[in-house]
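stage 2 :: seqdesign
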């Protein structure tokens, strides 16, 4: 029995934007509906046109299956599974790949929730974790153990936008028999398709760019069908199923992913260049800037650099607080990747679960601001940031 849907080879000849809208085209439209209906049913009649037991906690309703197949096709993976949140995807995946007595390597500076999972939850379950510098492959072997099972990275870390040597990650994984896992939330399949680079599993917080409208929480994992079946089986026990209505909204948001991300790529670069030249800004973290330490690597990896960046203001935490309070167009709120421009301080929001020492070790200062560039006119975004820095005397 399987709860996942495989993408077919002919789909690879279709453009990403076509797949976002039409998916993989399996079977006729349901009752002729152009848009997949919401299957707001917790359970389904056994044997009613299916050879599996459909149940909402199994994440195998028609809404779940359609989304899993579509996301898999976008990443050129065999199968996909949608779950209740990005962290549900992270935890369910890792607790499928790892067991007590295992060891995992995780990139330093990743999203705070994932970092806390590796630093606190894993040890409590008998799983050891070490953090690696994603830009220094020569140092990874020093932490390798006989019980190392997996390596976990991000294409651009959240929130410092460090770009790991992703080619080295997959080479290292193959050489040492590890499962390579990437959280591809920041890049999206528009800018980076993990399986073309040899990754085994790709995770997304679909709350962010995939949905893009700041109105649901969802997650997904894509990979070989064998792995996705195992993760789906574990998810039935852990219970992180996505609600059908959220699945419907996720599919609706996904249809515009391409046009949204390409616009955010363009606007993000304009905003980053503006901030880099502003006297109130001490440092800008954005791989599209020539000054970024991994700019050359990013150009070789990504089709675009995304709409999320971070920057340090002169004046530290007080200046950052004044700036955030003075924005008029941008909203002080967590999350990213939506149509609205959002700003927030990672030290008190996304990475608040880490200790000050842990934050300082990975470079997250109290004055750091993360900016998610939305779809407003880029001139309006820049004007708002400029007036906020002048009004707040940052």
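stage 2 :: out
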């Amino acid at each position: 029995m399987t709860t996942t849907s495989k993408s077919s080879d002919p789909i690879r000849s279709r453009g990403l934007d076509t797949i976002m809208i039409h998916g993989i085209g399996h079977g006729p439209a349901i009752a002729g509906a152009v848009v997949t209906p919401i299957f707001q049913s917790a359970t389904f009649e056994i044997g009613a046109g299916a050879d599996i037991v459909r149940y909402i906690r199994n994440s195998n309703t028609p809404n779940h299956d359609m989304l899993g197949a579509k996301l898999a096709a976008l990443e050129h993976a065999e199968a996909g599974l949608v779950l209740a949140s990005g962290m549900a995807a992270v935890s369910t995946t890792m607790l499928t790949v790892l067991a007590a007595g295992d060891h995992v390597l995780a990139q330093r500076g990743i999203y705070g929730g994932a970092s806390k999972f590796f630093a606190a939850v894993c040890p409590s379950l008998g799983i050891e974790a070490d953090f690696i510098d994603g830009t220094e492959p020569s140092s990874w072997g020093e932490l390798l153990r006989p019980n190392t099972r997996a390596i976990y990275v991000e294409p651009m870390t959240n929130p410092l936008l460090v770009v790991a040597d992703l080619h080295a990650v997959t080479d290292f994984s193959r050489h040492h028999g590890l499962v390579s896992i990437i959280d591809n939330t920041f890049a999206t399949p528009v800018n980076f398709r993990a399986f073309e680079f040899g990754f085994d599993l790709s995770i997304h917080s679909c709350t962010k760019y995939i949905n893009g409208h700041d109105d649901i929480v969802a997650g997904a994992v894509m990979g070989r069908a064998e792995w996705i079946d195992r993760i789906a089986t574990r998810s039935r026990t852990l219970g992180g199923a996505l609600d059908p209505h959220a699945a419907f909204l996720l599919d609706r948001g996904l249809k515009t992913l391409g046009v949204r991300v390409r616009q955010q790529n363009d606007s993000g670069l304009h905003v980053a260049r503006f901030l880099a030249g502003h006297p109130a800004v001490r440092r800008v973290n954005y791989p599209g800037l020539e000054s970024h330490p991994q700019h050359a690597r990013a150009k070789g990896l990504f089709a675009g650099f995304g709409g999320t960046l971070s920057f340090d203001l002169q004046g530290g935490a007080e200046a950052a607080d004044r700036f955030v309070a003075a924005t008029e167009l941008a909203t002080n709120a967590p999350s990213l990747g939506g149509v609205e421009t959002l700003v927030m301080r990672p030290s008190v929001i996304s990475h608040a679960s880490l200790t000050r020492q842990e934050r300082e070790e990975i470079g997250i200062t109290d004055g750091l601001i993360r900016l998610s560039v939305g779809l407003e006119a880029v001139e309006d975004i820049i004007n708002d940031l400029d007036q906020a820095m002048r009004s707040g005397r940052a």
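stage 3 :: structure notes
- The longest strand covers residues 148-153.
- The chain is about 35% helix and 15% strand.
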